[in-house]
Amino acid sequence: MLSANERITSRQFAFLIILSAMGTGLIILPRRVYDFAGHDGWLIALGLTVAALGLGSLIIAAARVKPGATFIGYASYALSRPVAYVCAVLLWAKLSFVAALELRSFLVITRQVLLNYTPMWVVGAVLLCVCAYAAVKGIETRARVAEILILLLTLALVFFFVIAAMNTDFSNLQPVMAAQPRQIGLGMLRLGFIFTGLECLLLASPYLAQEKKPARAVVCALAVAGVIITAITALTLAKFGQTVADEPWPVLRLMDIIPLPGSFIERQEAMMFSFWIVTVFSLVSALIFFGGRLLGDIFVARGESPLRPGKKHTIMVLVTAVTVFLLTLFPWQSHDIEQRLDWVWYASGAFFLLILPLAVLLGAFFRRKIESRRRAKNAMSTRVAALLLLILFTAPLFALAGCGDHVEIEDRLYVIAMAVDKAEDDENRYSLSVLLAASTTDEDETEPEDRLMKAEGQTLTEAMFRIEDDARTALYFGQAKLLVLGGNLLEDADLVQPLIHALVQNPSIDRQIRILSTPSPAEGNFCADTIEDLQTQRHTKSCFILDLNTLHKHLQQNASALLPHYPDGATALKDHATALSLTNDHLSGYLWCLPDKNEQTLITAMHVDTPVPFRVATHRTRIHFESVANCDPLKLRAAIEVQAAGTLPEKPEGITADFAEYLIAQAIAEEIRTTAALLQAQSIDAYQWCDLLRKKEPALHKKYASQWEDVFKNMEIVPRVTVRVS
Fold it and tell me: With contact defined as beta carbons under 8 Å apart, do 199 and 71 qualify?
């Protein structure tokens, strides 16, 4: 640290850039890139990173044409003083406007995610006061705080990536480079708002140590930030797939659906929100800091030294902060914020990031003089000030924890399972049963029927509220691990479709909750036995895992899904209603088409009247699609390659190992064909092969996707099974 002289090292400058680079744009970027390039949207984020490296190098080179000079200093040197002042006023206006949009976007998300009943201006005033305090204390204090926050952010990101990568289907990113270069290029041009804050590099030169290569720190920092943004974008696209377009803030929602092992956290997205506020604080405080310094520089008389930290600097920062606050209070609509960010980028992005730096470099080429403007010492930039700033910074974090409408843990009832069915007396109403967790304060353990509560309602929310009214306390659904859907309900698409939508939109329900179907009525005490079976790994085959997020995704992609049926078999949905019931044997034929889903099961092949049992240890499945030449244009072949390995618990006399392998392979192939014929007869693509075709064979998908129901119904199924007996 270069103490008390308003200079920071390149390392500290890099930390500030990394923290400021991941603002509001990161929260909405996965959804925006998907609109342009689909699952290849991460390539847009990667292209924006490369563009940021070039623009950052160009800007820092322009800012260093007159080392130590302020923006007006080197701009006057290269472009004349009147032009410099006009550019300075425009730049100050942009910094203030962008800071207001970033802050307003943060407040809108805060209002909808955490603090529903807290006025936005209160939260905005608290955060803006902390940002203004950091700006008043100078860049040294901000740099020291950045050294502390970068460590916390690094640990949080490592934890986030490791946990989020688990159970993520990265095949959703296939096929790679399917988007046209024109789409990727157009996305890069339209989504340049991600460069918000990069203009601050034009004002950073006076605060950098006189090192030979400050551009290296800028490039490294932008590269790190770009890699993080690209990785988060790719991870979000892989996690949500095509449903990312329906998420307003997919990165925040991503944290909510991550299963944290052993966690007991009510609002997981609040964790991601806490990490995000660090970057919002860094970006807004940077914009206010540079806006105040720029405004002070504008009003410094010619020939005077730059504005020193002190009373005048405080006034200029406050003027900028008040301007930002007033712009924030303007009644923007939530969808208008993104449009305004785009408008700011279209109107001034290219000018400040490309045209102005090039003009400065060209002007300095003809006027090479050295004139240094040094910043004076900062009287109060100590470790104590950094610690005080950190304490003040954590105040809004606690406010964002949602404690305003908190409920004490002993005053809350925890739901561990839910059952939803159609009401018996009214076909347009839901019947909701919830199974509550046993109280640890009771001396005697309560029976499941004593922990069962039921209610009816025209909507799922109404039924939930009625149960809370009967219980006279709040219900917490975040720990619910099982959702049972009754058979009568599943036969009515008009009830199933709004139910799935309500479950997905309800932030209190975990998207990883397991789903089972069952004959009506779906009683709540039945849930207790089912949960015990799942915990003890019983009924593993019949209770294959299906979570709410996967069900929603499958129904959106091709309106087909397969629900595990308790205690065995499965229920096939078509257009949100039951279309077919599969027995346990039929389900086995379905599971052979999914990798690792039939492991530790037993299959019996028959040789005349002699049964040959085979216990499956492992199996691998690969599916290839082939267009059938010289046939019906809608004809498609699915080659299902299964490699199974296991043991013979009983080896019948006269049956060799090779012959047993042949018999078992034939039995597996027959199971696959039988189940496929049942599903094809109803045009139920429970395999989700349409999406698999999109990933593996985009050309074939483009050809057959528009008529997929007919294509799937006439598809030729070719099992190719290899069995190895050990």
Answer: no
